[in-house]
Design brief:
Number of strands: 18
Number of helices: 7
Shape: globular
Helix content: 10-25%
Radius of gyration: 18 Å
Length: 328
């Protein structure tokens, strides 16, 4: 898919920019081609489009937008087209509270292909909305989530006092906030998660899992990572943050995008893929949690049986509670 086609789709169908609205595109020099495509698409609708080029803040880009909460005050809509996601930052939370729109569009890939050329952007937002609604109907009365896989995952998470939501790219559907990651998300209670995650999909920004990794979580925190090649990569990655809060399980997500594949090429595609689930660690304040941290990352796994208060909502990666006319 051509990157200009992807940019046009995002501006028109996801952000839904209107004439005279003021749009800010937050990006870096690494993604000038993508930023130019988004700028060009937006200028066809509004003459009030600006680009903010960040310094290379690497994994600490979220810290900047925690320290500058008012960064988006002057804009009607903002696209976070950066290396790392900004969606869990205080600046985004403030923007949404002020009825602005924010689209998280992290552009990180490791296969040399622009994210704006990925086919998963074509996913029908209406279809994901219906899929998400079926899951959320089961979540709202539930207080706990149980997850099991044939590889050995056994996890229990708490939803007590928390409200789940979904992303499907469309800011309108997300009441102002959305992400290119098409998923149902839940800001789980941060000190509640217990059990073992056998990681067999991808490790977010790190890429694919070469060999399944057993990860023990005790009272909401990672307490053990299996000592194999992928496990050592994950441990090194978390240690780079120098923040113990990055070990805290803070989000549970289910992928909804049937165009996506979990290949380790693009973490947004990985965690969006239908048939996967992911556990997020670190900051979750903009998702409805209370956990602050210097960053956020997700670990993606396949083919789970998932229960919300003992009601099965997914069996071996297939959603079991969809309306009869929705085909996967």
């Amino acid at each position: 898919m051509d990157i200009q086609y992807g940019a046009d789709l995002i501006i028109r169908n996801w952000v839904r920019l209107r004439g005279r609205e003021r749009l800010l595109i937050v990006t870096s020099r690494r993604y000038l081609a993508e930023a130019h495509a988004l700028f060009k698409a937006a200028r066809q609708i509004s003459g009030r489009v600006e680009t903010l080029l960040l310094e290379e803040l690497s994994i600490y880009v979220g810290v900047y937008f925690n320290d500058h909460e008012d960064a988006f005050d002057d804009y009607d809509a903002v696209i976070g087209a950066t290396e790392y996601s900004l969606i869990t930052t205080r600046a985004v939370r403030r923007a949404i509270a002020r009825r602005k729109r924010f689209l998280s569009l992290p552009l990180s890939t490791n296969d040399g292909v622009s994210l704006l050329a990925y086919d998963f952007l074509r996913m029908d937002t209406a279809k994901t909305r219906i899929m998400a609604s079926s899951i959320l109907d089961s979540y709202f009365p539930a207080s706990k989530i149980d997850i099991q896989t044939a590889r050995g995952t056994r996890l229990r998470l708490s939803l007590k006092g928390r409200r789940a939501g979904y992303f499907n790219g469309c800011c309108r559907d997300g009441k102002g906030l959305s992400s290119s990651s098409m998923e149902v998300y839940a800001p789980i209670v941060e000190d509640s998660t217990q059990g073992c995650l056998v990681l067999d999909g991808s490790m977010g920004y790190i890429g694919t899992v070469e060999r399944p990794v057993a990860i023990e979580i005790t009272d909401g925190r990672i307490s053990y990572i299996e000592n194999n090649v992928s496990g050592r990569k994950l441990k090194t990655y978390i240690e780079r943050f120098a923040d113990p809060r990055m070990y805290v399980a803070s989000e549970f997500g289910i992928g909804l995008n049937t165009y996506s594949c979990c290949r380790g090429h693009c973490y947004i595609e990985d965690e969006s893929a239908y048939g996967t689930f992911h556990i997020g660690f670190g900051r979750n304040i903009a998702l409805g949690g209370v956990q602050d941290a210097v960053g956020h990352f997700d670990l993606v796994a396949h083919a789970a049986d998932i229960y919300a208060d003992n009601q099965m909502i997914m069996e071996h990666g297939k959603i079991t509670i969809l309306e009869p006319h929705i085909y996967i």
